Amino acid sequence: MFLIRNNDQLYVYWFAEYKHENGMPIWESQSGEFSCNYNDFVNELIQNFKSFGLEMRTQISQLLENQPVNVEIDSEQIILNQKEYEDLITKIENEEFILSEEHNWNDVLNKANEVINKSKD
């Protein structure tokens, strides 16, 4: 899968010839492309991350209220991990988590070639 941003557009290209161990294709469409507005994509991604975080918070609360018998749970670590996740999403949402605009295009090309060569194996 490749994600390429060009100004306000995001282009997604994929190829997936992977098959399940029984020989059935894993993906319905083995290759394709899609494009959308970059900001719309990022906003939707953030909303999905936030929804996931809320669902996890609910599951963690239920777990801590109804701890299973004979299962050791590190409650402090679970709560800390959830807080770190939520803090990261907040930073992304507030644009404090900035991705570099500088690209090493030789590195990008090398990584793309690695993926292409692995797919040929």
What value does the average pLDDT take? 86
SSE-based structural type: alpha+beta
Tally of contiguous helical segments: 3
How are the strands ordered across the major sheet? Answer: 1-2-3
The portion of residues forming beta strands comes to 15-25%
Helix content: 40-55%
How far is it from the N-terminal to the C-terminal residue, by CA? Answer: 17 Å
Main sheet attributes: strand count, strand direction, barrel closure: 3 strands, antiparallel
The outline comes out as: extended
Secondary-structure element series: EEEHHH
The tally of strands reads 3
List low-confidence stretches: none
User: Roughly how many Å is the radius of gyration?
Assistant: 20 Å
Describe this structure in words.
The model has no long low-confidence stretch (mean pLDDT 86). The protein has a three-stranded antiparallel beta sheet. It has helices at 38-65, 75-93, 105-120, and strands at 2-6, 9-15, 31-37. Strand 1 and strand 2 (9-15) form a beta hairpin. It is of the alpha+beta class. The protein is built from three helices and three strands, in the order E-E-E-H-H-H. Helix 1 packs antiparallel against helix 2 (75-93). The chain is extended, with a radius of gyration of 20 Å. The longest helix has 28 residues, at 38-65.
